[in-house]
Specification:
By secondary structure, the protein is an alpha/beta fold. It has 2 domains: 48 residues, eRF1 domain 1 (Translation, Eukaryotic Peptide Chain Release Factor Subunit 1, Chain A, 2-Layer Sandwich), CATH 3.30.960; 109 residues, 2-Layer Sandwich (Nucleotidyltransferase, domain 5), CATH 3.30.420.60. It is 27% helix and 34% strand. It contains 4 helices and 9 strands; from the N terminus they run E-E-H-E-E-E-H-E-E-E-H-H-E. It has a 5-stranded mixed beta sheet, with helices on one face. Strands 1-2 form a two-stranded antiparallel sheet. The radius of gyration is 24 Å and the shape is elongated. The two termini are 36 Å apart.
Length: 168
């Protein structure tokens, strides 16, 4: 099943003092990312309790010179919404350095614009932000550039919780 499978199997003692075999199995209403196989004198329901606790959903945008990834985290359930690769030109020296720098800046600008547009597409539903908070991560200055960009939707800018530098 898409959301996993919960199976409880064991012997219980009824009110009359008799032993009764019990088999309970179902698919949880949300994805469960826990695997637990135990022989014990009780049924362990902690993983199911976690599903009921946190409904806060956080958005992630991870971007570097190779591409960007959009994802969400809700409780212990993570989901990659979209990712794409990008080919950005490297710095060049010599007589053409200024021309290359101009082309490089233009491609970086287009990359940040594409990320900003996709962020609005994934994290806005009916003109409302659909995540509790947004975390921008990555190497280089792309995350800072995005957070300060006019192209990045103001409603999303107010939800940015943290900028995280991810080093190799």
């Amino acid at each position: 099943p898409n959301n996993g499978l919960v199976v409880y199997c064991g012997t219980i003692v009824t009110e009359e003092g008799k032993e009764k075999k019990v088999n309970i199995d179902f698919e949880p209403f949300k994805a469960i990312n826990t695997s637990l196989y135990l022989c014990d004198n009780k049924f362990h329901t902690e993983a199911l309790s976690e599903l009921l606790e946190s409904d806060n959903k956080f958005g992630f945008i991870v971007m570097d010179g190779n591409g960007a990834l959009f994802g969400t985290l809700s409780g212990n359930t993570r989901e990659v919404i979209h990712k794409f690769a990008v080919e950005l030109p490297k710095k060049h020296g010599g007589q053409s350095a200024l021309r290359f720098a101009r082309l490089r800046e233009e491609k970086r600008h287009n990359y940040v614009r594409k990320v900003a547009e996709l962020a609005a597409q994934f994290f806005l539903t009916n003109d409302k932000v659909n995540v509790t908070g947004l975390i921008l991560a990555g190497s280089a200055d792309f995350k800072t550039e995005l957070s300060q960009s006019d192209m990045f939707d103001n409603r999303l800018q107010t939800k940015v919780i943290k900028l995280v530098d991810v080093s190799y």
